[in-house]
Amino acid sequence: MNTxxxxxMDAARKGILTPQMAQVLEHENISQAQLMEKLAKGHIAIPAxxxxxxxxxxxxxxxxxxxxxxxxxVSKDVCSFDAxxxxxxxxxxxxxxxxxxxxxxxxxxxxxxxxxSEIPVxxxxxxxxxxxxxxxxxxxxxxxxxxxxxxxxHGRNGVDFITIxxxxxxxxxxxxxxxxxxxxxxxRGGAILFEWMEKTGKExxxxxxxxxxxxxxxxxxxxxxxxxxLRPGCIKDSTDAPQIEELITLGELTKRAWxxxxxxxxxxxxxxxxHEVEMNMKLQKKLCHNAPFYVLGPLVTDIAPGYDHITSAIxxxxxxxxxxxxxxxxxxxxxxxxxxxxDVKEGIMxxxxxxHAGDLAKGxxxxxxxxxxxxxxxGELDWEGQFECAIDPEKARAYRKSSQPSEKDVCTMxxxxxxxxxxxxxx
Length: 427
Description:
By secondary structure, the chain is an alpha/beta fold. The chain has helices at 8-13, 19-27, 32-41, 81-93, 108-118, 127-135, 144-157, 170-178, 188-200, 205-208, 210-220, 241-259, 274-287, 308-321, 341-362, 369-379, 383-389, 393-401, 419-424; strands at 44-45, 60-61, 67-72, 98-101, 122-125, 161-164, 223-226, 264-268, 293-296, 326-328. It has two domains: 8-362, Radical SAM ThiC family, central domain (TIM Barrel); 380-424, no CATH class. The strands form two sheets. The protein has an eight-stranded parallel beta barrel with strand order 3-4-5-6-7-8-9-10, surrounded by seven helices.
């Protein structure tokens, strides 16, 4: 049998079961034939850079459990790589599926290498940010070679997926002007490229030289996460012409990537009111040919700074229910500051709850097993059994310990009025 392949997609198309595919099959209720068929079509992606040696691969896409991503990274004002590394290890402890490094200051390559060497889940980055940090140049002085050298560096470093805002073209920029927004561009990568195009008069380099990007990604088997540079940053801007214009372009680029055996995910909004979430999910799947969909939130209201992990979880659960495959967590610090370690935990838990709720609604095989086990433990007033099923056992135990009942089998909410205890005595 031919065992030569360039990417996970290429292997699937040749009928080769890779070690990464085998790892995915250990954790998903899907057959080998189904996995390989969906990989070959692009409906599932397994981001797995050849240089990420310790990776425990995960699949993202149709028929698989909804995955969650944790963003971290330093800024100029808060620049402690050790603190960010601690957050990365927390992400593993609390069962995140991916970590994305958004660092924009300091020794970004050193940190990236450390992240890849220590963290076994898929790692994502945004080379557009790092090009400015790495070169130290004003945006308009960045060259085509600068942009693509950063992509190569990230590939060599072992990054599994890279966000590239290749769909924000000059045509999209015209749409942005003819359809004014309340919040303009809120994507950092999108804003950088928009500024570069405006100041140089040139086309988006990643759109114009997309084949060069594909060649680099095929070489390392980096998955391209096609970024939504024109995602809505507020409820009023949701599902507007610039957003849809870019999404159409992302669908076209997806086909070009698949033709070169390069895996693709599509990034999505953003801020979306509840009644538009389902439409956005179905529109993306239609326009982007069922490629895996990676969403930030979506946040379903703009008025909850300090609680945006909740607004995101509400939108994320609904998005997952209607087809989103990958949720980017949002912390209580969103829109306010760099998140603390505690913010990271809160964001992870909110996102995991949303992902699981979505899996229940999608009917993912086996998703309800733990809920049933929890329900049985509750029905038997088995407190230890309930803790074992909890998404955060430590917090559940701490809450119960903080308020001890006079009768150990009930809680201080109901005490002797406990409905479960009364009915159990009669059945």
